[in-house]
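Format notes (please read before filing issues)

Several people have asked whether sequences and structure tokens are stored in separate files. They are not. Every record keeps both together, in the order shown below: the sequence lines, then the token lines. Line labels are part of the format and must not be stripped during preprocessing.
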Amino acid sequence: MPQQTAYFPPAHAYSLNKKRHANNTFYVVSIKKLIALLMITFGFYTIYWSYKNWSVVKQHNPKYAQCNPLVRAIFSFFYLPVLFNCIQNKAKQEKVRMSFSAWHLAAACILLSISAVALISSGVFYLTWLGVLSAVCALLPIVKMQKVINYTEHDPTGWANHKFTSFNWLCVVAGASYTSLFALATFMLIAT
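Then the structure lines:
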């Protein structure tokens, strides 16, 4: 029986894909990579994700030419609805169907984040874990919007950005450390 091998596109196809994505109007990343980084960093990767998207928006959208991507990323709590709306407008231009409202997704993300912080800060064990669940659910709108971005940029799988970079691995180490400390603190809370 012949052995089957996985198909990998030729190296030149990958470099052509990278060149094509230099003109993107949003940050393309594979969904698997995004979910991994969001979960491992406990959602802090959202700040980087927002920064990368605002940086690209600033380059390609004259309306936002004067915006500061770093400020918008740090205060993404306030700017997430605007970013989601920009993504929705691009999807309409590219005729990518969205079965949801960008504003509703942004509101869900923000409200779930607020409830996560409140529940985790409560100090009550079962509420803390409800807060963790809420934090995970708060990441779902970002994943949903990334799928839309990938389709509007004609890279549904996010192939152009599917590999982990050095910065991604740094995020993994920092996120794993933070998550370990959180788990240890929760365990100590139970023990007392």
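For reference, the curators noted about this record: The chain has one domain: 26-191. The two ends are 61 Å apart (CA to CA).
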